Amino acid sequence: MSHTVEVCDHCEKEARILIHIKDMALVYRDDPRQRHLDAEWCVGCILRASEDDAKERK
User: Is 1 a domain residue?
Assistant: First the structure.
């Protein structure tokens, strides 16, 4: 059984698991790549984005 390797739309690294963020409330005001919020991000990018978002709200 072979796995197809996908690439994260945010960090552009290969990832085995990608999460579709179209419905997530991650909004990057300063990130030009965010134009397409209909994207697939790896778990690491999503975790970093949510940590950054939490820091901004403090």
Answer: no
